[in-house]
Design brief:
The chain is mainly α and 116 residues long. Helices cover 37% and strands 7% of the residues. The chain has a single domain (7-104), classed as Arc Repressor Mutant, subunit A, CATH 1.10.10. It has helices at 12-21, 31-38, 44-52, 84-91, 104-107, 111-114, and strands spanning 29-30, 66-67, 96-97, 100-101. Strand 3 (96-97) and strand 4 form a beta hairpin. The chain binds a DNA duplex (13 and 13 nucleotides) through residues 12-13, 30-32, 35, 40-53, 63, 66-70, 73-79, 85.
Length: 116
Amino acid sequence: MPRQKSKNNEDFFSSVYNVTMQIPYGRVTSYGAIASYLGAGSSARTVGWALNASHNTPEFIPAHRVVNRNGLLTGKFHFGNTTTMQQLLENEGIIVENDRIVNFVEKFWDPLSELS
DNA sequence: ATTCTGACAGCAA
DNA sequence: TTTGCTGCCAGAA
C-alpha cells in the first residue's frame, strides 16, 4: 500500500512513470486517477508535469494513454505533432474524435482499482 | 527564499 | 453548454 509521500526511494516523477508504464495496451487513464493512486490527491497538474519530463527519460513512457478526466487529448501538443498522440491511440484500437476519446469509459483503466 | 508556471480538476456564472 | 477563476503539488529560474 503505497502511502509514502516524500522520502521515498522513488521520486514523484519515477512513481508517475512507474504507474504510467503499467497501463495495459489499448487502455487509458486520467491524470487525476494517477495522482489519486500516488496519494497526491488533487495534484493532477503535477502528474502532467512529471509526464512532461518523461521525454527526458531513456525509458518509453506511454504518455499518450494518459488524458484528462474528460478523455480530451490535452497533451497532444507535447508529442511534436498534434496528430501523433491520436495516431498512437487509434493504433491501439482507441477511437478518437475531435481530440476526445469516444469510448473513454470502456477504455478507462483505473490504477486504484486495477493496480490497487 | 520568493515567484511563476504547468500535459489538471472542480465549481461558479 | 461554454468560459473563466481557484486550488492543488512539485520543479525551475
